[in-house]
Structure formats: C-alpha cells, structure tokens
Amino acid sequence: MKVYSTLKDIQTDLYAGSLTCRQLVEFYLRNIEEKNKTLNAFLSVFDEEALVKADEIDAKIQAGTAKKLAGMVLGIKDLLCYKDHISQAGSKILNGFESQFTATAVQRVIDEDAIIIGRQNCDEFGMGSTNENSAFGPCLNAVGENRVAGGSSGGSAVAVQADMCLASLGTDTGGSVRMPAGFCGLVGLKPTYTRVSRWGLIAYASSFDCIGPITKSVSDAAILLEVIAGKDE
To answer: Has 77 been annotated as catalytic?
Structure first.
C-alpha cells in the first residue's frame, strides 16, 4: 500500500473506494509490529479496537455520515488520559493505572472519527528533551539508532516519522512537541496557552503545558488544531 502524508490524500482514496479504513489500520499495525521493537515508540497498541473503529468509519463513509477526521489514524502521548486505557506518563509510579475519563482533546478527535491506535512513549512525566528518560526505555529516531528522537514527545514523533500512524497528539511545556518534530523532520505545533483544553493532560507544569499535533504536513496540523481547540466547560 502506498504511504500517505496527508489526510486529504487518504480521504480522496477512501471516498473513491480504492482504500478502506480497515486496510489503513492494518498497514499501520504491520509497521508497528515490524518497527516498534527497535524504535520503542509505542507502549500500548490498541489493535483490536482500532480495527473495530475502522469498520465503523468505513460504514459511515458508505452512508455519507463520516466526519472531519475520518481516515486519520492517531497515536496519543502517554500523558493524555483515555478512559479505560492505561496512562502512565512514562513512569512506573503509575503502573496499572487506568484513566477514569478521556482528555477533552482526545475526545474531540474521537468525535470527529479519528482512530486512536495506541499510547506513545515519552520522557517520564514529560521531563526531558530526548526521550531517553522514560521508565520503559528510550525511543530511538528512525533515521538511526545513534540519533535521539527529541522529547518529551519522542514516541509521538517517531511513530509518525516511521509510518506507524498518520499523526499524533503530543504535549509541549518547553519544546516537547516542537523539538521531537524538528528532530524527526515533521510539523509540530505548540498552540497558544488556553487555546486547547488541558483537561486530561497529566501535568508537568500546569501554567505552561499545552496539547499539540505532530504531523507530516501543515494542513494536517491545521485541521487537528481546528478540532481540538475551543472552549471547554
């Protein structure tokens, strides 16, 4: 299957009938299986539920009811809460902890038919700039094992870089989206503080923490920001 760099290209093929969301998810799952043992970008993979969600969205596409992010396969940094899924902030302190609710930004992408494929490695509690400080081991840059991924959202960036998902949601306090995006040749955006709700983001420094997209294209960063931004009651 061809490698996609933008949601627009994916949706063009989805609506033309030459691609399905299930095929897309299967492609990313194969890449995760092949590459993650070396790169250590994902801490958990939601394979079965991602395939179920893919089938649901394929049915929506057929019915003409699919929403804005249909066809976007996303990973989320291990600082973002996702109800009934493990969230550990890259730390063994939170071993076995399951989120009791879903972060607002995560819920908003789900509501627009994005598919969450897994939980991504990061420096412990976001404290680092190379993703070498995770309790689950370093995340390696796909360019070469002698290069760091950047941090703290290193797993989120490498997953996109290595075609294990189309885009990721990371978090940025002092560069933790922008640095790994730069190290991995991607687009990373730290939104203006308060533009995106912090609800469900495990805190490092609450007065600076922001949730932001990591993508291959400016257009995908823009559409993700459009979806996750806005007032949160």
So the answer is: yes
